[in-house]
Design a protein that fits this description.
By secondary structure, the protein is mainly alpha-helical. The chain has a single domain (about 5-270), classed as ABC transporter involved in vitamin B12 uptake, BtuC. About 80% of the residues lie in helices and about 0% in strands. Helix 2 packs antiparallel against helix 3. The chain starts with 7 loop residues before the first helix and ends with a helix. The protein has 12 helices and no strands.
Amino acid sequence: MIDALQYEFMRNALMAGLLASVICGIIGTFVVVNRLVFLAGGVAHAAYGGIGIAFFFGIPYILGTIGFSVLAAMAMTAVVLKAKSRADTFIGVIWAFGMALGIILMDMTPGYNVDLMSYLFGSILAVPGSDLVWMAVLTVVSLFFTAYFYRDLLAISYDDEFARLRGVPVNLLYFLFISLIAVAIVLIIRVVGLILVIALLTIPPYIAEKYSRSLIMMMVLSIILSLLFNFLGLWLAYAYDLTSGATIIMVAVAGFLISTGANYLSLNRKSFKFQ
C-alpha cells in the first residue's frame, strides 16, 4: 500500500477519503440525529437526474448535478416542513423522477459512452483533482456552518418546537442544512457511488451515537470511524482488486455488525447481573 503512494491517483484517493470522512462525520451526524436518512436517500437518487442533465447538455458534471440536487432537496424540505404526514410519498416521487430523468437523458445523449458503474458504485481511485478542491471547500463550509450555528442546530435536533419558541430560524436552517446534504452527496458519489452514499453518511454516526455524550463527541467519533472505514476499504480494494466503493461500504457494515453485537452482549450482561 505504501508503495502505491508514488501514484497520483492513490494520493488523490487517500485525500478524497480524508475529506469525505470529515464531511460525512459532520453532516451525517445531523442526518442521523434528525432522522433525515430517507430524505437524504431521496436526494441521493434524485441526483442521478442531475448527472443526466449534465451529460445531455454538455455542462460540467459538478455544476449540473449540484444544481439539480439542491432544487430537488429544496422541494423535499418544503414538503417535510409543511406536510410531514405526506413527506415520504413526495420524496419517493422525486426519487423516482430523478432516476428516470437521468436514465432517459443518458439514453438520449449523443455519443453516449459514460461509465455508469463509476457513478452507481463509485471509484475512489478515479477521483480527479478538481473534485478534491470542491470537497475541501465543502469541508471548510461544513465546519464553519456547524461552528456558527451549533447551538441552534443542537436545539433543532432535539426539539424543533422549543427552538422556534426561542426564535431560532428553524425553516431557514433546515433549507441551508438540506442544501449541504445535497452538495455532500453529489461530491461523495465519486467515492462510494450513488447507491452506497447513504451508508457512508449514516453508518459511522449511528455507531458513534452509542458511545457519545454530546453532539461534538459524536461528530469527532464519526469522523474517526469514517476514516477507518475509508482507508481500510481502500487498502482491501487495492490489495485484492475489488470495487473500491463497495469494499468501503462492506467494511462499514462489518463495523456496524460488530458494534451492534457488542452492544447486545453488553446489555445482556448487565441484565444478567441485575437478575
